[in-house]
């Protein structure tokens, strides 16, 4: 063997050794992700989507000793919203638009990069972003901004298959992390601002063959179709652009749906507009809908209900119950029975004036705001897609909040033209620099706005819906949240700070300036006995661990 071949052989061997040491990710491992807290096997950490780590090395006493261990610089200037996966010491993450990167989770050293070039016809409404991956066996799965699902070998990054999920030229896109359930990879489509008809679809993990497709807007022969007038349903939106959850005991997978179309002219789509702004419970094997709950019927405010469903088995009124917690963009915190979809409670967690409350069935009691009058919460909602957390240790639900409003203008008649925006007008967000999907206008900042446009973290007692504490930030907060078994809460912010709070009291325990906006969620994992916490900020991923 000549020198060059020998060098190539040893380089390949060095690449493959770390991957040879890790076991395949089986459906059983995914189902019992809590049994291996050293890893982070799904977008939300596990099927319950609690984003709660059971690692205990970093606690409230020593968190002040966290220090930076390594930084990965993304090769993209697009928004960096990724949640990495960690499998037996290997980290997998995405960088915009659709690259997959494999790293040494201990050092941040890159092993390989898979590059996917989206079609020029891709037109995601709100940034060329990707939020993460799914894994099964030794295969990684990525949804792309041009509405493809791609399978990649996790050892060296070579492509295995790619399937077209929908037509990007018609406005369909995918920005979410897929969810693997059993032998299927489940995804949803974005594009609600383009008059698409939303759907959730499952693909055979080995081949990419479509197994089932469940539309979020019912056809003429389906229940709920009469909630639309005439042919309005054909371009009704209800996109699905965030990752769902799964209950293996019930074999139900739960997904939130986005706004109806056109967004801002509700008079053009009379009725409740099912199943927009809803949570759908689907049979994981067939895609058949078992139940639904609609949070914002006939939504005129663009209150997408794509927030991640958080599942918990806990007591309700003294009896064990399978619950779902949901901090909704419309400003209300909900508790549902996830077996049946029954509404159990709902209370506002920010200022709300579009509804005076919720009735006994959870339907909002509307208080319409005239055109030009501030509506609370605003276009971004009381919260948005930012991942919440539930701590079984404290029994509290945590979410990032926006305290702001929007000014509603009269809608305009929207003419549907495939591949162009189908919003029916605009509404004005007062926060300068805020991402404004749907093309709405911004109002100039005034003293009224400055007093209200801020955010933070809220801790809610699900049993009562009451806020236990509120950690305020100067700016609005677009960060996801991580809690730990040692009663820590990690959260970022638009100002670039990464912070650790006491999860029981909200007290600030540790703070670092990372210099870039944080619009992702933290994770925690362990390698060689050391616990790490990572967060994406700006265009970099930062990894922290305790000082030696």
Structure write-up:
With 548 residues, this protein is mainly beta. Helices cover 5% and strands 36% of the residues. The chain has 3 helices and 38 strands. It is globular.
Secondary structure layout plus pairing:
Blueprint lengths: L2 H18 L6 H5 L20 E2 L12 E8 L11 E3 L2 E6 L3 E6 L5 E6 L18 E3 L2 E5 L4 E6 L5 E6 L14 E3 L2 E5 L10 E6 L5 E6 L29 E3 L4 E5 L21 E6 L5 E6 L15 E7 L2 E9 L4 E6 L5 E6 L6 E4 L5 E3 L7 E2 L13 E3 L4 E8 L2 E3 L18 E2 L18 H6 L1 E8 L4 E8 L7 E4 L3 E4 L5 E6 L5 E6 L9 E5 L2 E8 L2 E7 L2
Quickly give the structural class: mainly beta
Q: State the end-to-end CA separation.
A: 44 Å
- Estimate the mean pLDDT confidence: 92
Strand content: 35-45%
Q: How are the strands of the biggest sheet laid out side by side?
A: 1-32-33-34-35
What is the percent of helical residues?
under 10%
Evaluate the radius of gyration: 22 Å
Q: What sort of overall outline do the alpha carbons produce when their principal axes are compared?
A: globular
Count of DSSP E strands?
38
List the defining traits of the structure above:
single chain, 5% helix
Q: Brief description of this entry?
A:
The chain has 548 residues and is mainly beta. It contains three helices and 38 strands.
